[in-house]
Structures are given as structure tokens and as C-alpha cells.
Amino acid sequence: MAQKYERNQEASVYIGNLDDRVTDEIVWELMVQAGPVVNVHVPKDRVTQRPLGYGFCEFQSSSDADYAVKIMNLVKLYGKPLRVNKSSVDKRMQQDVGAKLFIGNLDPEVDEKMLLDTFGVFGQMAQVPRVARDGVSGNSRGFAFASYTTFEAADMAIEAMNGQYLGGKMVSVGYAFKKDAKGERHGSAAERLLAREARKNDAEAAAYSGQIQAQSQSQFQQQTW
Length: 225
Hints:
The chain has 5 helices and 12 strands. The protein is an alpha+beta fold.
């Protein structure tokens, strides 16, 4: 029985928004510019054998993976900006609290990097902004989505950017509609309450962890004095 390969998550990156023409070899040649590569995997559909649009790259060290995220994120490959993130990112940081914005009337020349540079100033983003693109040509469909880790940041972005010009066109910015609720937008009072409670719980857990660590360090110092 073949042994299952265990990928080093700390030294691996996730690569999203891949064009169908991208192969394991192309990803390897691109990522090796950031550091020594151990393994590359671009998953394919079991029936059609077409790439699923994302992949993974494992480096020899976590520092190489960090460097790859720094220099490769939003680099265009076959005209599509790559989304490169660490595979081991804390899932709580990626949690969708509901602070998701819809950006409409987008100029065709506005890409993910411009959106990140523009909207990133209002607060921490949950993920790289996503421009809706045509599945065949890859051209912008005139709208995009941006998600924040807090509603405060999303509110600031709406207040500052709604009705402003971006790339030559006046954009509309507001909370996006929910996928599973007809006519209901993100940013509701219920979502905000849940987000506040989650942040409160995380803060309490972090404070408790800090106390335990301080106590352990104090005990160690007393034992070695």
C-alpha cells in the first residue's frame, strides 16, 4: 500500500486563480524564483482532467514560502493575477464575518492589485479583492468583491469610496447580497453582533493564553534561579 505524502503546511503556499493552461511544471518554474521547491501539485477534475484553478507549492523552508507570498501574490500569469497565500494561515483569520462589499461600475482596467492598494487602507482584508471575470476571455465583468475582518473597516470603505472615481469611472460600493438569502445584504445587526462576540471570545482566549505563558515562564525562572 502506497504511503500518503505529508506536505509541510508551514512551508507551503496556496496558489489561486490559475489559468487552465497552467501545469505543475509552469508553477514549479515560477515558484523556484522565490526559493528551492520540494513539491508542486495542481489538482485536476477526475472526469475531464482539466485543472481546477488552484494549486499548492511546498518549499524547503517556511521563510521561502513567506517570501513567495510577498513577491508572487497578484503576479499575472496568462493575464490572470495569482492569489498566493500561506496554506497554514489561521482559519480564524479567514473566517467570513460578513463584512463583504460589492464594488460596481468597475473600469475594465481596474485589477485586483489596484483594488487591494485602494481598499486595503481602510483596514485588514479577509482576502485579496476578487474581480468578477469572464470565464473564457478573462476580462473584467465590471464588478468586484472585497471582504474585511471587521465591519468597522467595511463601513469606512463604503463611506470613503462610494461614488468616488476609480480608474476613470465612478464606482458604487455597498454591502454585497448574501448567497443563501434572497434580497438580504451583509452587514446586518445580527452579523455585527456575532462578529463582536467572536472578537470578544478570541480576546479572552488570547489573554488567558498569555497568562498561562507568563506563569510558566515565572515558574521556570524560579526553578533555575
